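Late entry, written up from scratch paper. The run itself happened at the end of the previous shift, but nothing got recorded in the book at the time, so transcribing now.
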Amino acid sequence: MSRTPRVLKVGLIQMQMGDLAAENLRKACAMLRQAAAQGAQVACLPELFLTPYFCQTEDSAKFDLAEPIPGPTTQVLSELARDTSMVIVGSLFEKRAPGLFHNTAVVLDVDGSLVGRYRKMHIPDDPLYYEKYYFTPGDLGFQAFETKAARVGALVCWDQWYPEAARLTALKGAEVVFYPTAIGWHPAEKATHGDAQYSAWETMQRAHAIANGVFVAAVNRLGHEGAPPGLEFWGGSFLCDPFGRVLARARHDAEEVLVVPCELDRIEETRRNWPFLRDRRIDAYGRIVERFLDSRPG
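Output as recorded:
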């Protein structure tokens, strides 16, 4: 007996942030409603969507941007999720306790309930990405969250470069792995390295989709931010299927709401033909938890 295919409509909200958190939240909600009107069952916002990307400098006053979870922003997103019957993945600057802060993704179900949170595990410290100053590494591990729409995983930006993060999230049963993101070009490097940097970013995540047999959605912010030279966030949000095929890709120069149908049965189909999870040598990977496999005397 044939059964009805499972089709999940996924919304990607690519937006540019202004200086006012209230205005960014208003815009995010309007774009989420637009996604819901197009049939999205789950939608994801960019990393730290409430504010400009403040990690370009180390400034203790920026800690005032953080808020508790649950808190005022999760309340607004919760009401929106309930009003639209849509799962929402949002990225927030979490104040956990005085002096203790995280870069956190929240997952809100269609009834507005907070299904769970993921605290960013991999924290970068690069020029104009001074995140180690602000964020404590996550301590909740890699997770997947059961929602009314699908089982979703949430990782955040710099996590994109780590196959271990995608693997463990997939092993938790995620059908779609979302990456709320804030990544862009250093303007002086764009002409020489820009195409290669974007290509590497997209290729890495398509590889996660293939290696794990899952859908992957990368949701980036857009636009130039910060005092010159600042950063030019490259947009280019995309969604790919378990075979690594890009089903939709946003532009580099415009805000967009993408709503993409995902045939979840492709997960089973792809894994039957490319059974990477079956063939993993779990007996041989013990040393993966070491920092480096230094040579040891015989």
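The mean pLDDT is 97.
(Scratch paper discarded after transcription.)
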